[in-house]
Amino acid sequence: MYSLYHSTGACSLATLTILNELAIPVKVINVNSLTDFDTVNPVASVPALTIDDQVLTEGAAIVLYLLKKHDNDLLPSEPQARQQAIEHIMFANATMHPAYSKLFFINQHISNEDAKQQALDAAAAHINKLWQVVEDKLSQQQYLGGDQPSAADIMLAVYSSWGAYFPVAINFGERTTNMLLETRSRSSFRMALASDDA
Ligand SMILES: N[C@@H](CCC(=O)N[C@@H](CS)C(=O)NCC(=O)O)C(=O)O
């Protein structure tokens, strides 16, 4: 039995979407209803996935575990295409996600309003550079995964909504906007959004 520890709107929404893509039934547990989540994940961040007694943490590692374990079209088997797909997952999880995490950190820890806005703008400028990288990657293909969404497209589609929480301008190119809209319109994503509210 799979149980996903999640928080509404967080990166765990991508894990849930990928579980839906793989048609894996999962129980969702909102960590905001728990006082002892750190006994599951000592870092206390979502996602955490339990499979019976096994605890999996770190979003990218969980995604790769699921894609290797279950049949899917999200992780190619051909070595070069597979390496590219893993690189895109890491770009999403280890480059784009932390760039957005700076917005949350600044908002929480800088109290001077001018200094806060300056820091938010600097973080947003970096995020915009990263979205331009995505736009460039999409010059020859609709999704990072080619002609269908990959796990990285799903992860980026989740992170892309976070800018709206802050007084910053996040700019998406035309091809990126299309990729994000198409990815978010998939039934796997819409089902995840419905369960993510729980
Ligand atoms: N490196 C971790 C980071 C995950 C992460 O930052 N999760 C955020 C939500 S998107 C979180 O749980 N933040 C609350 C906290 O860290 O206490 C991963 O990729 O799983």
- The total count of strands amounts to 4
**Ligands:** glutathione
* Largest sheet: number of strands, sense, barrel closure: 4 strands, mixed
Our count of domains comes out at 2
Q: Average pLDDT across residues?
A: 97
Strand content: 5-15%
Principal-axes shape call: globular
N-to-C terminal Cα separation, in Å? 19 Å
Short description:
The chain is α+β, with helices and mostly antiparallel strands and 198 residues long.
What does this structure look like?
This protein has 198 residues and is of the alpha+beta class. It has 2 domains: 2-72 and 188-196, Glutaredoxin; 79-186, Glutathione S-transferase Yfyf (Class Pi), Chain A, domain 2 (Up-down Bundle). The chain contains 7 helices and 4 strands, in the order βαβββαααααα. A 4-stranded mixed beta sheet has the order 2-1-3-4, covered by helices on one side. Strand 3 (48-51) and strand 4 (54-57) form a beta hairpin. The longest helix has 31 residues, at 79-109. The protein is globular, with a radius of gyration of 17 Å. The two termini are 19 Å apart. The mean pLDDT is 97. Bound molecules: glutathione (GSH). Residues 7, 10-11, 44-47, 58-59, 93, 101 line the site of glutathione (GSH).
Keywords:
globular, 198 residues, Glutaredoxin, alpha+beta, 4-stranded mixed sheet, Glutathione S-transferase Yfyf (Class Pi), Chain A, domain 2, single chain
Fold blueprint:
Blueprint: E1 2-6, H1 12-21, E2 26-30, E3 48-51, E4 54-57, H2 59-69, H3 79-109, H4 113-137, H5 151-159, H6 174-184, H7 187-196
Parallel strand pairs: 1-2
Antiparallel strand pairs: 1-3, 3-4
Bound molecules: glutathione.
